[in-house]
Design goal:
Elements: H1 2-7, H2 14-18, E1 55-57, E2 67-70, E3 73-76, E4 85-87, H3 90-96
Antiparallel strand pairs: 1-4, 2-3
Protein name: Fe2OG dioxygenase domain-containing protein
GO molecular function: L-ascorbic acid binding; metal ion binding
Domain Fe2OG dioxygenase: 23-100
């Protein structure tokens, strides 16, 4: 959080304090979604926002399931080999009062 705060031009402890300070523990959830052998028979998740302040994804080169909304359109994110996707979502958006 310190590095993110600094790169956003904030005091280094800004985001840490905004999320409750040093005494608040972090939560981690690890999910793995293997490629579906019959994707035409499945349903995906409904549109949603990630509830945390930061989501870090390591996408699979073969599974193109992540989509982001831009305006009224959904865009499929093409995975980049050996790269993480870092999503700083709703909580940080609210802290800064950003409304696209």
């Amino acid at each position: 959080m310190k590095i993110l705060s600094i790169n956003l031009g904030l005091k280094e402890d800004y985001l840490q304090n905004a999320f409750g300070g040093e005494d608040i523990g972090a939560c981690i959830r690890v999910n793995y979604y293997p490629k579906c052998p019959q994707p035409e028979l499945t349903l995906g998740l409904s549109s949603h926002s990630d509830p945390g302040g930061m989501t870090i994804l390591l996408p699979d080169d073969e599974v193109h399931g992540l989509q982001v909304r831009k305006g009224d359109n959904w865009i499929t994110v093409k995975p980049v080999k050996n790269a993480f996707i870092v999503n700083i979502g709703d909580q940080i958006q609210i802290m800064f009062g950003y409304d696209p």
